[in-house]
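User: Here's a chain of 346 residues. Predict its fold as tokens.
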Amino acid sequence: MPTHDHYVIIGNGPAGNAAAFTLRENDPDAAITIISHENICFYAKPKLVKYLAGKVDEDALAVKTMDEYRRRHIRLRLGQTVAHIDPDSRSLHLAHMETVHYTDLIIASGAKARLLPSMKPYADCLTFVTEFNDTTGLRKKIADSSRFFIFGGDLVGFKFLKMLTDMGKQVTLLLYPRAFWPHRLTKEMQDAIVKNLAPTNADVLADDDLDTIVPEDRGGYWVTTKQGVRTQADLVFSFNGLIPDVDFARGCGLDIDHGILVDETMRTSLDRIFACGSCAQIYNPDINTYTTSIGWPNAQVQGKVAGLNLLGEHHKVRPAGRKYFDLEGVKIKTAWWEDLEKDEDA
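Assistant: Prediction complete.
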């Protein structure tokens, strides 16, 4: 490959890092840049709950250190947000008005917290835990608070609930069946989850919905449900799943549904642009549609495939790791390839 190539990767998670290190292994001369809106090196998001509980410090979150990027001559630009992609000039426009040019682009921007349309009037009342940037000042708030209300119930939300109850906090959970987007919990799944959460001593509400959230003058909130349950909380958390973080890519010519549409090789609808990880919707030939995937192993495989194919190879991506997450005794599919009904271990 020519030495003047500049490979740019948007996103500093497992997919973006797998792509960057794959590119460096196979092209020792090209310039490689990772751009991330977060201001922290590649870290383990599953550990954020332990970080908020005060069980681990920030250093323990790290997956890679800055020295590892320096040794491999990968430039890491942290705290910088991509505002727009210009495929015609092969450039990215950053929020602080800088322009970054690329020869090839990999979008691995991950996912962001899903705010339900019905909750938009109460957005300022809700606290999200999606990334490290969300945790600023939150550890102290959690330590100083005693009453919590959780709306949703995705994988992180249940870990968070257990963290709070282990800390002796009073927790009310309003279980929402669409919290684990794009999957929907059935009534049987909800009943199983409620039963399996019983040992936490949390107050679990099902078959209900949020009505209002009213801030108190001295801090805290009054939360009322459609069924008339009214409770007081110091903090209200929303765990309603994640959606692809792709708003910055809209309007540039990429085919985008919920996420950026890619084929089995992670190629997008535009030349020299790939997408991978939870920001991508991958074409599934088995069911003739585009579907998303979740999970660290899947993201890593997709990042590696994107990197290799950017360099001219032709690999087709396949699921990696576990096919399911255990969601309080309920199987939630992580792989996008096979039809759930056809899986022998379903």
